Amino acid sequence: MGIKRRDFLAFLGAGAGTVALGSMATPKGVTMPFNMERAASYGGIGFNPVRLPMPLETGNIEAYQTFALVDDLVLPEGFTYDVIAAWGDRVGNSRFGYNNDYVSFLETGPNEGYLTVSFEYISGNTWRQTYPMVIGDTLALTEVHQQGSMDVFSLPQGNELKAKVRAIAEEMMIDMGLGVISLRRNGDGTWSRTYSSTDRRITGISGLKDGHYLQSTGPAVAVFNKTNKVGYEDGLKDKIIGTFANCAGGTSPWGTVFSAEENFQNQVYEPVMADGSSFPPSQKTFQIHEDDDHGCGNPLGLAGNKYGWMVEIDPANPNDYGTKHTWLGRYRHEAVGFFAQAGKKLGIYSGCDRRGGHLYKFVSQETVRNVKDKANSRLLQNGALYGAKFNPDGTGRWIALNAETPVDPVLPSQVSGGMVPLPNPNRQAGDIIRVTADQEAIAFKQQFKTLGDLYTGNPTEKQGAILIDAHFAANAAGITCTARPEDTIVDSQGTLYIAFTSGVPGSDGSPDKAVFQGPNGDSQYEHGWIVKLQERGNDPAAMTFRWEILSLGGEPATGGAGFSNPDNIELDQGGNVWMVSDMSTSSQNKAVPSRVKDGQPLPTKDLVGLFGNNSIWYIPTSGIHAGEAYPFGIGPMECECTGPFFSPDQQTLFLAVQHPGEIHGVRLNGQSEIRQFAMTIPDGTEFMQQRTVPLGSNWPGKRPNDPPKPAVVAIRRVNNQPIA
After folding, report:
1. Are 480 and 388 in contact (CB under 8 A)?
2. Which in 83, 225, 365, 661 has the greatest CB count within 10 A?
């Protein structure tokens, strides 16, 4: 594999800890061979890596000139998996949701416990195709799909179309949210459900009809309870209907589960008024879209400011339907990491998974006494939220998101895409603007001195409004725009690991071009980074930190570790990283017949197809092989593997397989096609690969023409020994 730039600099006598992301990447052409057959002993990993379409070793081109993908979860020899639950299976009085993401297992006794699962979104076309097959029901899907975009909220009560759309929106929302199921391990190592009284669903419409509203804590509650809102009033005060867009998450040391509401903007309108209140539901219309952008909040009359939070539940309490802790901020949450030590304040980290999103840290006002005490949940009711300011030299500091923080906007010239969204200077109108010239940002700074000048209300309401508008307030405060921070996890020593998925610009924004660079100084680098962050004095409440790269995505020939788009990460008991990739479905196996277009090399975003399907990786975090990546598994067709989580004895790796068949839906009669890929081996030698790519999926049933279904599996060794 490519030798890490860190080692190259060490050879020259330079200190890796003071080097920027871009300058730490491997220089092109500096490579070392990676012998797959020796990997089990070479890295001490205990398994023989699976064979990918991407060559990770120099030589043997003939073995890669043809490659056939299979529609299955591919694991190393000696490993197997069991399907625990799939979309449509019964859970309490509801069903197992769609596109399962974060998975948490909390042991309640030997060989038994609660599995908590997040359900992120529905894949429009495939969900619509397979809903009658899996759920056994019919909806007016074709009729409503043909209507296109609709403001159903504004239609009168009793309208026939409104009733049909509302029924569809409710079914969509039932397939999002959270689920708790009880499990037991059998004598042969397999896991089975026990269907206990704690099994339940918390959906996108919990509370709408059943009274199971979600609760909330923190300053935003003052905004929810205001009687003179500038914007929309849902009439529920601090009661919240449901949770949706539940993506990654985290398991607290005290035995509760946190689930992140990520792309909530697909269902409700994201920007808010200056007092933190919502725009009316009509601002986000409803449609049956090909992907996940449906606007379900429109027919259901949801207030947008109540979504985009971190939700905590206690799986063991059947009456707990979730609490949204507003001190953690409202943004496109992706995962949560806990830094909890007795005698210190509680630190909680989360990233905003959008292009140009930020890394955040909550610090509690009070200190932790007993790390395992469930009373620690109360620590989230008072504290402060901070955003990370990364410096190119490997240092950084935390900036508070409060009324006293000076306005010092991120400049468009600082980010690779040249655009920064800021709160609309016309504060009476609310919403946001997209700034593309530095002078606009400078004028914004001259108009508003502090974040408190941007928001209205008494001190508590103003703080609540800042937290509700956290992403745009963070841009106004100059907090670093980053490269889609998709996971945050803290090891036993207090080191924070962050998966930055992609560094290319998008319509939402883009990362700081001085910080997020590829191996050749490319400020629009697609393949991603895994970064380590250490607080000063190993203190969760520290206001400064240091950071460095652990592993770099990309092709081995250009210094990458062989993966693209790192996403969820899990730590084993040895402190090593297990990572799953998040290449977009449209990019997976997209043909690359040439690496040049119009005489210029293709940008990295056009090379993602080379990497094949999304995959599972093992990455040592210490020793001479730290940062090297070993492929452990390959996902089924058109899917994303998410939420890896180890059982306490390390014998089981729970994993969610999300959206198999997301583009082509049901794989009909074993259909496949052959595509061309201009590949390289680590020494830079190019060759053409013919790759057989199945179209659609029949996983997990795997019978001809089976509907693809998202599902959670339990991975284990055949001999039931520890995986890690």
Report:
1. yes
2. 661
Phi and psi angles of residue 165, each rounded to the nearest 5 degrees, phi first: -65, -40
Residue with tokens 């449509």: 88
- Residue 659's domain comprises 5-23+32-717
Q: CA 68 to CA 634: how far, in whole Å?
A: 12
CA distances from 609 to 231, 491, 505, 588, 659 (A): 44, 33, 19, 5, 18
Q: Would you say 509 and 482 are in contact if contact means Cβ atoms under 8 Å apart?
A: no
Using a 10 angstrom Cβ sphere, with 0-12 exposed, 13-18 middle and 19 or more buried, the burial of residue 109 is exposed
Identify the pLDDT of residue 520: 86
Helix, strand, or coil (residue 405): coil
| Interatomic CA distance for residues 96 and 99, integer angstroms | 10
Residue 291's pLDDT is what?
87
Q: How far is CA 437 from the centre of its chain?
A: 30
Assigned token pair, 259: 């689930």
Give a yes or no: residue 235 inside a domain.
yes
Does a structural domain hold residue 430? yes
User: Contact at 8 Å (CB) between 560 and 527?
Assistant: yes
Q: How far apart are CA 5 and CA 27, in angstroms?
A: 7
Of all helices (H) and strands (E), which one includes residue 130? helix 124-135
Give me 511's structure tokens: 């990362």
Q: Side chain identity at 459, as an amino acid letter?
A: P
**Does a structural domain hold residue 126?**
yes
Q: What's the total number of domains in the chain? A: 1
Q: What is the β-pairing status of strands 215-217 and 246-251?
A: unpaired
Provide the 8-state DSSP code for 479.
Answer: P
Could you say which residues of the chain have pLDDT below 50?
1-43
For position 161, what pLDDT does the model report? 95
Give the per-residue pLDDT at 653: 98
User: Sheet containing 496-500: which strands, arranged edge to edge?
Assistant: 333-339, 345-352, 359-367, 383-390, 395-400, 544-552, 529-535, 496-500, 485-490
User: Is 724 within a domain?
Assistant: no
Name the one residue in this structure whose structure tokens are 């985290």: 250
Q: Residue 4 carries which side chain, given as an amino acid letter?
A: K
Q: What pLDDT sits at residue 58?
A: 86
Residue 700: is the preceding peptide bond cis (ω within 30°)?
yes
Please report the pLDDT score of residue 113 as a whole number. 98
